[in-house]
Automatic annotation (TrEMBL):
GO terms for molecular function: monooxygenase activity. Residues 5-342 form the FAD-binding domain. It holds the Pfam family FAD_binding_3. Belongs to the PheA/TfdB FAD monooxygenase family. It comes from Massilia aerilata. The keyword DNA-binding does not apply. This is FAD-dependent monooxygenase.
Length: 507
């Protein structure tokens, strides 16, 4: 009988990242996908700053950035003129090591993740379909059909990373409430020329014709995402790029030299009621799908995977009890609810039809964006929101304490300009204690005794500017969020925190 710690159904970015983080922590994984190979087309093109920060833990960030196209800003076009410009560099330079929007198509992204997974000795099993599963007290029994026929295997846990039509979700009889937008959209991989082919993101808001251009190479390679007008849609024939409205293309000033591939799709907004069902978890599109507004989908699935990976490892190794896995459901479900609501509002505004909607979108919105983005606080807020750096877990059972501006559940602030980068990878995916200033002898001794990594930074003005407090203790989770913040830094307070969350390793 084939037994694994974690069985992963689905080898898109969510499943691949989950497998990578688990394998890096020494957890046995098996990952299968019903496709014959990695994707060759995709809608997802954006990798946000928070994802890159998390990738840095495994030494992936710089490779991903080098392979993609860092976009320094977004431009809004109306009636053939650039009406507003949003600069990411200005907004995020003091907030994250990655103050840009990285355009990196999902198909290329997947191939990079697969290569790193193979380096760890894990192969994606292709043309292998999950037929069903049964939960037991201490394992999940999984039935598969692959190239060699049907088989059965056991895993301690099952992760459904198998997309919007998730067989794992259907096997749970879990709901997937939501709806479908009326508009038909297209995605095309093209060779583009013209002013917009300049390495930035360009959005055209001409009336009801929506168009977005994402450059991902210096030679004009770009991804187009746009709407197709209803009068072009016919049930009698398959749509092609010639059915794309030319008004938005001309208004953006883009010339399409070549179309490498083209596909149409409907946009959905759906959310399941729970991400954890006993020993079975739902992640990524299997748990939540939403509009492409803000390029949040793939990044959210990757966030799901990293949130779950370190918790699974702790429970599998007997370091923590089941309450830690319950926090995956509460933390990621709360974020997904906010995300679906936010992207739904933005998408409804962008795609709304009618004279009044057109007037607001083409006349009012560009003026509002330009005015608002000239205010420093608004500019930073917008960057934090879109980049997912604003995501926090304040309501989580794992979030305790506060010191100055930092609360338990916050993303650890990045200290820009500090002599030593407090986001620098430690080489392991583990908890750590950070102190900016002086750590007490008692804290140092306890961390050494328990094996809890302690990082002490000489106090600098950059730390104060980031909102950190001198000599305070910040207990940082393996995913870079503050679990516990304490001004006193007493060992008893840290020990009590671990006892309260059921984490035996340091209690």
């Amino acid at each position: 009988m084939n037994r694994q710690d974690v069985f992963i159904a689905g080898a898109g970015p969510t499943g691949l990242v989950l497998a990578l983080w688990l394998a890096r922590q020494g957890v046995g994984v098996r990952i299968v996908d019903k496709t014959a190979g990695p994707g060759t087309t995709s809608r997802a093109v954006v990798v946000h700053a928070r994802t890159l920060e998390l990738y840095r833990q495994l030494g992936l960030a710089e490779e991903v950035v080098a392979a993609g196209m860092p976009n320094p800003g977004i431009n809004l076009w109306v009636h053939g003129k650039r009406r507003a410009h949003i600069s990411f560099g200005d907004a995020g330079a003091g907030f994250t090591p990655y103050p840009f929007l990285l355009v990196y198509p999902q198909d290329r992204h997947e191939r990079l993740l697969i290569a790193h997974l193979e380096d760890m000795g894990v192969q994606v099993e292709r043309e292998t379909e999950l037929l069903g599963f049964e939960q037991h007290d201490d394992h999940v029994q999984v039935r598969l059909r692959g190239p060699q026929g049907e088989e059965s295997c056991e895993a301690r846990y099952l992760a459904g990373c198998d997309g919007a039509r998730s067989p794992v979700r259907h096997g749970l009889n879990a709901g997937f409430e939501g709806g479908t937008y009326d508009q038909l959209f297209y995605v095309a991989d093209v060779i583009a020329a013209g002013p917009p082919a300049d390495g930035q993101v360009h959005l055209s808001l001409d009336d009801a014709d929506f168009l977005a251009l994402f450059s991902y190479a210096a030679d004009g390679q770009a991804r187009l995402i746009g709407s197709i007008r209803e009068d072009r849609v016919s049930p009698d024939r398959e749509l092609g790029f010639e059915d794309v409205g030319e008004r938005a293309l001309h208004g953006l000033g883009v010339e399409v030299k070549k179309v490498n591939w083209f596909s149409t799709y409907k946009v959905h907004h759906r959310l399941t009621e729970h991400f954890r069902h006993g020993r079975v978890f739902l992640l990524g599109d299997a748990a939540h799908i939403h509009s492409p507004a803000g390029g949040q989908g793939m990044n959210t699935g990757i966030g799901d995977a990293i949130n779950l990976a370190w918790k699974l490892k702790a429970v599998l190794r007997g370091e923590a009890d089941q309450r830690l896995l319950d926090s995956f459901d509460s933390e990621r479900l709360a974020f997904a609810h906010k995300l679906v609501e936010t992207t739904d509002r933005v998408f409804s505004f962008v795609s709304a039809e009618g004279n009044f909607a057109n007037f607001v979108r083409t006349r009012i919105a560009p003026l509002f964006v330009s005015a608002a983005y000239s205010v420093g606080a608004v500019k930073e807020f917008m960057f934090r929101l879109v980049s997912q750096c604003m995501l926090n877990y304040h309501g989580s059972a794992l979030s305790h304490g506060s010191v100055g501006k930092v609360k338990g559940g916050d993303r650890l602030p990045w200290a820009a300009g500090a002599a030593i980068d407090n986001f620098g990878p430690t080489g392991t995916v583990d908890w750590q204690v950070q102190v900016y200033g002086d750590a007490s002898d008692a804290l140092s001794a306890w961390c050494h005794h328990t094996g809890l990594p302690l990082r002490v930074f000489d106090w600098e003005r950059a730390h104060e500017h980031a909102g950190l407090t001198r000599n305070a203790v910040y207990l940082v989770r393996p995913d870079g969020y503050v679990g516990f913040a304490d001004a006193g830094g007493k060992v008893e307070a840290l020990r009590d925190y671990f006892k309260e969350i059921g984490y035996r390793r340091f209690a």
